[in-house]
């Protein structure tokens, strides 16, 4: 018994630490931009089998006590099941439906194979002590059929229930119904704070949960509980306490393997207490002379794991969203509530069923409990919950993209730029309309809600793996990507606000690059130039930004929520745009006008949302307008600032946005993008659009003009020299929603300053407007060297891969532009 207790404690500690540590490693890799460690979870699976399998195997073979040997066998089976299930996490999180399908199939196979192995190992009750524990109950039968007790015979025997009991699923017994009621209560917190994915995703989650429940039913069947049944009548306290503890550890092992990285963590807390609930149910069934099978375990465990599997997207259980009341916060709330419910159920079932000595739970009471659970779930789901399906979409990229290689020469300045934008827009729309006709018709016929794009010849549509496979086989389709869609929250994320005041004069970063000298000596402040921001949004009422909004019905677009006017809850977009065009000393080009688009929602995006905003920047359209027919290319902004990147976890591949940036350059629109914050490793500029040659990629330096440790380094994918320039990105003061200011770090903060410098250059010399190549060369030629980093390790990234051409110099660049 002491050995079993020690092995149990070791198992719990190793599993909890291993699962939490594996998730944290995944998060660090994601946050630092490193390649996903495909071998992380398979390696942990092997380690788990070795580290936990050895002591549980000894526990299954060496002790003389049948109960202890049974404990070892169940834990060993749980450990081996965990090892197999952990291998499934090699599937990328973006393919959640494929993972759920594999989980369902693997758990069902383990249940089938495991049941046969455990039966051969002698775990089920058979001749001997375990079966004999039920024999003493036999002499009680004559006592119950004595004449004085005759009137109670029908209630005690309950012949109809005995006749229908083999029907199982069609007419479950009271114990099974009470287990299902408990499972529905465990599900309530997830119905409240979570949201379902797509139809297929939800169905696969249900199948996976059922398969895991079946696996739990194999491990914790009637034979398992019989080993902990001692005495005449059976001692309920021993069964509940000892059997519940052993079952809780076994359920912990199954919980650790159920769900992608992050989704398994809630079940580690909510599932183990269920062992005591199951023990109480089996104790009540045994005392009444009607041993329960595994149906109760299947229902209770299946419903217990369905919540985190179906109501939380594992990609959103991330530290990237942990700084606000986003998905990680609500998952923690659901976990805490589920733990409280599980503990309350364990205590309640143990007390109530423990007092019902010798009486089988009444079926009518169990039916009422299930009805209450279903009604509560419906009320919560349709009330404070988030009803409906919120699955991912697909982005279908077509093979043929518009040919923009032979554009006619354009006159210098704005007139020439507008003519080029108009021609590029025409060619893009014509190509998309011609090549998408058949595919759009098929998707509409299948009611898959297609949304066409022209900047990249692509279509976003509903669909799961089957639709994706069908689309991939079509001759006009190049590839199909997953286009992420965030699930709704039970309450809006609180808006980030600044707690600082505007600077007394030009901020330090404005002076470092010489923008204030441009204002005072040249009288150039960005007037006549429009800067477009694609980000989390903009607080249009901020005093540093309100006067610069271009206005009209085509200067703001929110493809996420459809807000009619510039708004921002995150603060990221307000801060970045403030550094480009903000007044009160925070912006490089304070008299430039601005337009905005929301491509980030709660700090995450998708290929389609990024494309929505880039397309809007090429040809703005009125609120509610059709981008194909209502686009106004002559209203396109001149310079675009993009402090975002699209990593694989959001659905992008390296080339998905390449036609978009190529078209914007061909149209004479200057695109600036952030290098990323995944330094200091070389080759860490990996996510589009920063990797593209037609984008000016910007890294970050500090007050000492040294490249910051977080600034991503080159070379970019394919060996391209990146970043192109660096700008101040550490401790940058700028605007925040609500009228305040805040200091933030990142290449996101450096990027808009370079966009502001371009605005100053084109304001100083309107003939440069639309001349992207000449402007880019002037910026490089006038950049000043970044200071060497004394902490740069020997053999680190070369200077060009750290700082590109150097630190942007607004004064020198504008001087060159004027000349």
TrEMBL record:
InterPro entries the UniProt entry points to: Peptidase_S8/S53_dom, Peptidase_S8/S53_dom_sf, Peptidase_S8/S53_subtilisin, Peptidase_S8_Ser-AS, Peptidase_S8_subtilisin-rel
Keywords linked to the UniProt accession: Hydrolase, Membrane, Protease, Serine protease, Transmembrane, Transmembrane helix
UniProt GO BP: proteolysis
Domain Peptidase S8/S53: residue ranges: 526-786
Positions of the catalytic residues: 535 (charge relay system), 572 (charge relay system), 748 (charge relay system)
Transmembrane segments: 42-62, 74-92, 98-118, 173-192, 204-224, 236-257, 263-283, 295-312, 327-353, 365-383
Domain of life: Bacteria
Stretches the record annotates as Disordered: 125-168, 558-578, 781-802
GO MF: serine-type endopeptidase activity
Family statement drawn from the similarity comment of this UniProt entry: Belongs to the peptidase S8 family.
Protein name (Swiss-Prot/TrEMBL): Subtilase family protein
